[in-house]
Design goal:
Layout (H helix, E strand, L loop, with lengths): L1 H35 L6 H8 L3 H13 L3 E3 L6 E3 L2 H12 L1 H17 L2 E8 L2 E8 L14 E3 L4 H7 L4 H10 L12 H14 L2 E4 L6 E9 L5 E10 L5 H21 L4
Organism: Paenibacillus piri
GO molecular function, one term: DNA-binding transcription factor activity
Protein name: IclR family transcriptional regulator
């Protein structure tokens, strides 16, 4: 009898765990849609992408709505990420020690080069921007903290990818190398060659591969385990970032990377 009760308890835990995972997957799908659609997402869109039936999706969304993680437009009935997520994001950013350590050096770098500096961490097969120092110039990068971008076509992404284990690289390639511009490295061979160059040089270059008119130099930040825990970049319009300037900034970025990595215990 005791054994049956214990087994029943374990079964309930498995069901509860499975339900939570499915609910979080729905939230993840909604977040992905909201990145590209400011109008939010319908139940049918989320249901199709999450491969969940609409009634289950509605239950998950209703639960998230009660705690403010999700909001529904009363006119369109479309869903979007709610304001409570800002609190969670703020807490997550506060606990990101790497941001606190890197910030003074990145602000100093931004002052020296007069261009926009970004700090990112990896999020699955993408990078997410966790800090930014604006350029003082009138024409500058328009980006925001929380933005997620692909790894294969951004300087910050390639800087991490070049020093990451092979399975991550294979996963990125398997997902597809969609060309964002005519400069995107959209073949396996071109990407692998560039990543090898990055390893040898110590910094990555984005030559208009994600946004055609933007160039940047980026470098990884290593932790005490010699893993690329983050990366950062200096970005600007290509007419201000000619080859000589890009090489100069690239060397500066590489040197700052060494400084920040050392503060994280990298030897």
């Amino acid at each position: 009898m005791t054994r049956r009760i214990a087994q029943a308890g374990k079964n309930k835990e498995k069901v509860a765990s499975s339900t939570v995972v499915k609910a979080l997957h729905v939230l993840h799908i909604l977040a992905d849609i909201c990145e590209t659609q400011t109008s939010g997402a319908s139940v049918s869109e989320i249901s199709r992408l999450a491969e969940e039936n609409p009634s289950s999706v509605c239950k998950h969304l209703a639960a998230f709505q009660r705690i403010g993680l999700v909001e529904q437009d009363s006119l369109t009935e479309r869903y979007r990420i709610g304001m409570y997520s800002l609190r969670l994001a703020a807490i997550a950013l506060k606990t990101l020690n790497i941001r606190d350590i890197a910030s003074p050096l990145l602000r100093k770098l931004a002052d020296q080069v007069g261009e926009t500096v970004h700090l990112v961490v990896r999020d699955g097969l993408r990078v997410v921007y966790i800090d930014k120092v604006e350029s003082p110039k009138t024409i500058r990068m328009h980006s925001q903290i929380g933005l997620r971008n692909p790894m294969y076509c951004t300087g910050v992404g390639k800087a991490i990818l070049a020093f990451s284990p092979k399975p991550l690289l294979e996963a990125v390639i398997a997902e597809g190398l969609m060309p964002f511009t005519t400069h995107t490295l959209a073949t396996r061979g071109a990407l692998l060659d560039d990543l090898e160059t990055i390893k040898q040089r110590g910094y990555a270059i984005d030559d208009g591969e994600h946004e055609l008119e933007v160039r940047c130099a980026a470098a990884p930040i290593f932790n005490h385990l010699k893993e690329p825990a983050a990366s950062f970049s200096v970005s600007g319009p290509k007419w201000r970032m000619d080859d000589d300037r890009l090489k100069e900034i690239g060397e500066m970025v590489r040197n700052v990377s060494i400084e920040i990595s050392a503060k994280l215990g990298y030897r």
